[in-house]
Task: structure prediction
Amino acid sequence: MAEDMYVPLQATTLRSEEMTETERFFEFKLDSGEPLGHEPGQFAEVSIPGIGEAPISISSSSTRSDTFEMVVRNVGNVSNGMHQLSKGDKIGIRGPFGKGFPVEEDMKGKDLLFICGGIGLVPVRSAIQHVLDNRSDYGSISILFGAKSPSERLFVDELAEWKEDDKIDCFMETVDKGDESWAGNVGLITTCIPKVDHDISNTKVIICGPPVMYKFVLIELEKLGFSHDDIFVSLERRMKCGVGLCGHCQINGYYVCQDGPVFKYSDIEDEKGAI
Amino acid sequence: MSKKAVSQSELENWVDSVIQGHKTYGVKSKQDKYDYGILENASQLKLDYDVTIRSPKFLFLPAVESIASFNRENAKYESEIENEAFVVFGVHPYDVVAINQMDTIFSQPNRDEHYMTRRNNATIVAVDVQTPSEDVFAGYMGTATVEEGFDVLVTRIGDDAYLIDAATEKGEKLIASLSGANDADDSDIQSRADVWEENKNKLRRHELEVEPSEWPELLKKSVESPLWEEKSEKCFSCGSCNLVCPTCYCFDVQEDVNWDMKSGKRVRTWDGCMLTNFATVAGPHNFRADKAERYRHRYYRKGAYVPEKIDGEIACIGCGRCINACVAKIANPVEVMNRLAEEK
Ligand SMILES: Cc1cc2nc3c(=O)[nH]c(=O)nc-3n(C[C@H](O)[C@H](O)[C@H](O)COP(=O)(O)OP(=O)(O)OC[C@H]3O[C@@H](n4cnc5c(N)ncnc54)[C@H](O)[C@@H]3O)c2cc1C
Ligand code: SF4
Ligand code: SF4
Ligand code: FES
Result:
C-alpha cells in the first residue's frame, strides 16, 4: 500500500520556552534524524495526540540547523496543547506544506523590505534568517516590525541583534501603545514605511501580519508607487488537511495550503475576500 | 467484454449469486424514498428507483471514518485503512460521473489512500435510469448516460429484458455466473441505444438555458451579481445541499481519545462550506461570515473552482438532490445559472 499522507511523523521537543504572555517558542527535531527540509515561509501540521492538528509556520531557516523552530499563540485546542509541551515531549508532524517566500526566484539580487505585524514575524523570520545567511545574494535589507505593546514583542534578543547587525541596512520597530519600559517608536507600522530609503524599482516587499494590517500597509505602499508584482503577502486561513482536499483554506479558486500561504499580491488582489 | 441479454428472473438469480459471494450494497426502498443499503437478497434491489437519498459517495468517503490511531505517550500515529472488497448495485449514470470526478480529485496530485483503497475495492454495477426523479437535470449536464467508470452496466431494454454489459475485467468476473445466458444481439444493443437517447431527453425536469461548458465564464462575470444576496437571504446555513451532493467532498478532522486515556483515533467527518463557521479562524475571524459569500462559494466550486482541477468538467452532475433537500428552495443550480445568464 502506498504511503498515507495523513499520518504524521514523530518529533521531539528540544526546547519549550515562554516568549510572551500568550506566545511560546519551541524547537523540535524529527525522530528520524532527517531535517524537515522546509523552505522559508512554509508551514507544517502539528499534531498533539488526543487533541488534534493545526497548521503552524516554521519560524527558523533550514540554513541554520537540522531542527526547526515554531512560535505558537495560545488560542484554542491544539495551541493550548502545545503550550503544555516540555522538553522531551513528543508531537506529530506532517509537512512541510505550501509555497513559501520566493527567496530564490523573485527576491535574489533585489532590495528587500520586510513588514511584519505581531505574530506575522514568526513565518517571516525564516526568510530573514535565510537572506542573512546568503547575504551576498541580495541588495539592501530593511525590516519593519510592529507589535501592539512592548510586552508583545517576539524574539526580543534577535530583534536587538538585528538592530546592531551590519548586514541589515534599516531596522525599525514600533508599538501601537507604549509603556514606561519603552523608549522606541509609538504608532502604527504604516508610519514607518515612508521613513525607509526605498529604491522602488528594485525592491521586493514581504508582508505578514493580522488580517487588518494588510489593507493599511498596502495603501501606504500604493502611495509610494510600489508595483503589485513586487509585493508578497502570507495569508492565514482555516486548514484541516494541508494537501488541497478538505476545502477549508480556499480563497475562491486558490488553495492557501498549496498555492500559498505566500502569494504575489498581483495574483490575488482581484480575488474577492482575499485581503 | 461480454454483453448478455437476460430476463428479469435471470437477472435476479445473478444478483443473488453475487450476494452469496460478496459484501453487496444496493438501492433499497426506504419508506417512500430510496437509499443504498446492504443487500440480503435480490428482491430488495430496486432498479426502477428515481433517485437515492444519499449519493454513493459515502461508500468511498464515509460520513465518519477513522483515518489513524494514535498513542498519546509517544505521538505515534498509525494509518487505519479500510480494505474490504464490495459490490454496489444500482448506481445511476450521473452518480457514476460524480464518482469519476472524485477519483481524480482524491488521486491527483495528492493521493488519499483511504478513499482510493475503498474505490479500488469496489465493483460498480451501474443501472440506466428507468424512472426520472422530480428534479433531475442530468440530460442537460451530459450525465444522463455514461461511458466509463463502472464495471457492469445494466439497462432495461424491454418488459422482461435487460442488457448486462461488462466493461472491465472486474465486471467480467462478476458476470461469470451468467455464462449460460444469451449473448446480446444487435437488436438488443439498438434497444439500449434507444434507452440512452430517450434518457438524454427525459432527464430534463428543470430547463437549463446555459450550456455547462459556459458556466465557468458566466460565473467569472457574476461575482457582483445581486442574486447572491437575494437568494441567500432565505438560507438557513443548514448544509443540507452539501450533505446530499455527490460532488461535495469537504471534510473536518477531529480526535477521539479512547477510554484508556492513552490511545485514540483520528476521525474524518463530512463538512460543508454552507455551514456558518466553515472558514473561521482564531480571533475569532470568519473569512466567509456573510451567508451570501458562502452561498456564492458553493456555486463557484461546482461551476468554476473544482472544474479547474478536473479538466474543465463541471462539478454538478444534475442529480437534483440539492433542489429537493433545500427547505428554503434556493439551492437549484438551474435557476441560478439561468438567472445569471439573463442578467448578462
Ligand atoms: C499557514 C498558517 C500558518 C500559521 N502559523 C502559525 C504560527 O506560526 N503560530 C500560531 O500561533 N498560529 C499559526 N497559525 C494559526 C493557527 O493555525 C490557528 O490559530 C489554529 O486555529 C490553532 O489551532 P487550535 O487548535 O489551537 O485552535 P482551535 O481550537 O481551532 O480554535 C482557534 C480559534 O478558532 C475559532 N474557531 C474554531 N472553530 C470554530 C467554530 N466551529 N466556531 C467558531 N469559532 C471557531 C475560535 O475563535 C478559536 O479561538 C497559522 C495558520 C496558518 C493557516
Ligand atoms: S449541486 Fe445539486 S444537482 Fe448538482 S450534483 Fe450537487 S446535489 Fe446534484
Ligand atoms: S440546503 Fe438551502 S437553506 Fe440549507 S444551506 Fe443549502 S441553500 Fe441554505
Ligand atoms: S487545508 Fe485542506 S484544502 Fe487546504
In short: The CA atoms of residues 106 and 112 of chain B lie 5 Å apart. The pocket of iron/sulfur cluster (ligand 2) is lined by residues B 244-247, 302, 316-322, 333 (CB under 6 Å).
